[in-house]
Amino acid sequence: MATDSEPGRRRRCCCAQDTPDVPKALDCRGDSDGPRRGSLCDRHCAAINNVQGDLGDLGCHLHRPRVPPATSTPCCCQQHSEEVCESCVLKTTLTAENAVEANKLSNNYKFGFKKWKSHVTARPWEDRSEIVKELYSDLNVIRGSGGSTLTFGNVLYLLLFGWWLSLLYVLVAAVMFVTIMGVPYGWLCWDLAGYFLWPFGKVIQKVEVPKSHQVCEAGMGESSALLGGAPPRRWHPRCWLGTAYWHRASTAVWLCLGYPVLALAHGLVCVTAWLLIVLIPVAKLSARATSRVLLLPPERVLVRRLRMTEVPLEGEVILCCYRAANPYYYKYAVDGINVFAVNLLPLVLVTLVLGYVDSSNHLTGSAVKFTLALLSIMPLSYYIGMAIASISAQSNFAVGAVVNATFGSITELTFYITALIKGSREGNRCYAEVVKSALTGTLVGCVLFVPGLCMVIGGIRHQEQRFNSRSAGVSSALLFLSVGGVFAPTLFSKVYGKLVCGECHNVTQNPLGHYLCHNCHFDLMDNNGTLYYSHVQPLVYTVSILLPAAYLIGLFFTLKTHTHIYDIHVSDCHMPGHHHSAVVHWSRWQALVILLLSTLCMSACADLATEHISPILTNSTISQYFIGVTVLAMVPELPEIVNGIQFALQNNLSLSIEIGNCIAVQVCMLQIPILVLFTIFYPTNFTLVFSDLHVYASMFSVVLMNYIFMDGKCDYFQGTVLVMVYFILLAVYFFAPSPSGC
């Protein structure tokens, strides 16, 4: 769900601190070793001026550009050349178009802040690639050589839309001919029928009518096709040309009989093509035809086929399309919002209407409503993430920290709290077990699946990827602490709890022989719950206080006293021609309103998901463990997974790893303590005692992740190991029996 919606050409200057390829003894100010020491500055400046990619791509490029010895590469800003060259071997330097974007990039490396790949400001048009510029074109540009028009996308257009759209134009043309007064529009529809059957390599022009043809000649008013004359074509206008367009009788006939039908057909084509994303050019074609072509006087519309040797056309070009499909439209954005998030937004409205209007399930069943509610969470998570990144980038550090801490986990907490409330009202312990499974699934998925998938996809493009092992070590230490604290009450209960089994059978028929028992668990309520209320519950409250305190200490450590661990420096260098003034997609107030509305819709969708999950839990043959650790855990994290993949493709694996680690740390240090605090004010069945399967899976995942991340470099093989281990754990959850109480 979250991609760089408008990628283009970026300038970057970057060097990782722990990269062994950069000699530490190099100094760009000396002249005894002139060629060698000066090359570091030259290479640094070449990386700023020549390397194309994302601003967040922080792989070291100082040793990659090859600058010819005789060529002197000017530095991007001479006044800071020595300062930048000295700090290059020590810091990761980010170069942004404006201060807001630089603030967002810097926030990506701060612990506890949401990592966001997409831009929060509008990029300068000249910085975008030709591919992206083509995505935003209005289909009115004639290219010298468009190549062959016989492509798979064009044939797909013919099969999906072209044949029936052309047939509809022929039928409308017949109706216009029958009305007599609509004959000019009949000829227009006839020509457009051929155009929309195969519009590629053709052009629709708006031509100017010569003034000499706009004056009625004597006797011309009695000449028509009905009296034996040749049928007047629209480029040979008759006397009705002198009449105002909107006052003509033919226009009234057209607007009543022809235009509504064609507008409805083009609207259907536009919506369908837009939802398919790769066919967005077809959507633009239909929208422009409806809003421009069909509302012009027929004598001013000219359809022509382009030829290689044809002279430039005179008049305004309204439509000129060469390709019906473009696979790069996944990068398309509307006001900074990715097209996938735009297309999924109507799904939220459908979910809310179906969920609250059809409460008795007359139209759809619980399974459909549950699926729609989960799918609606994905775009809402994207909007929440975009709003948080926008507010943080335009605010100071304190405001950004508060917004990230308050709304960073709002998606998961909303679902967990609504599920616990429903389980408490129904007296069903299964909801609490599902919440525990979702918490464990988020932890395991963010520790194994998210970084593993990013390593695999990033490793396909880059043979070996490096990351900041010190910053990853801080997150790993917090993760060890948080996992130990979360599962401490579970280990305590297993040591001092009383094992109770539901049913036991004597296998050997000997009173002293072996017994086979089922549904065994540690009973904490023995002796009126003395063990739980006197020992386990105080331990749970203590852990719930210490974990957020440790999280705050981690924030203070990484953001205040030891900021050098991340080695982030925002350069003052800007390329000539860059627009330094930030044009934000969402202002702070606009982002705040979107954040609150998205949170409100998220609460409603979470309520619908928990309302209709009960039949799935009771009637499904799949273990409730598996449903919790997969669907409920990973669907809300899809925008974060997409961000991590984008960072990995840009050779910035540090942020990909930090995305998973930060989510896992927030699950243990923020989300679980908040749930415990919630149970104090609203008693539920949630206790901080997990099953053995959750404990073993979480502990093993954290240990494996720390082992993989020790050396600060990785490849696709190590990522494959993490992903395979994650799928093995999913198989274990799939075949595991349902938890007790479900």
From TrEMBL:
Keywords: Antiport, Calcium, Calcium transport, Ion transport, Membrane, Phosphoprotein, Transmembrane, Transmembrane helix, Transport. Residues 152-202 form the Inner membrane component domain. One of its GO terms (molecular function) is calcium:proton antiporter activity. It is found in: Endomembrane system. It comes from the Eukaryota. It holds the Pfam family Na_Ca_ex. Gene3D superfamilies: NCX, central ion-binding region. One of its GO terms (biological process) is intracellular calcium ion homeostasis. The chain crosses the membrane at residues 155-188, 252-282, 337-357, 363-385, 397-418, 438-460, 472-492, 539-559, 663-682, 688-709, 716-736. Residues 368-488, 591-733 form the Sodium/calcium exchanger membrane region domain. The keyword S-adenosyl-L-methionine does not apply. It is a multi-pass membrane protein. GO terms for cellular component: endomembrane system; vacuolar membrane. This is VNX1 protein. It comes from Toxostoma redivivum (California thrasher). The gene is Vnx1.
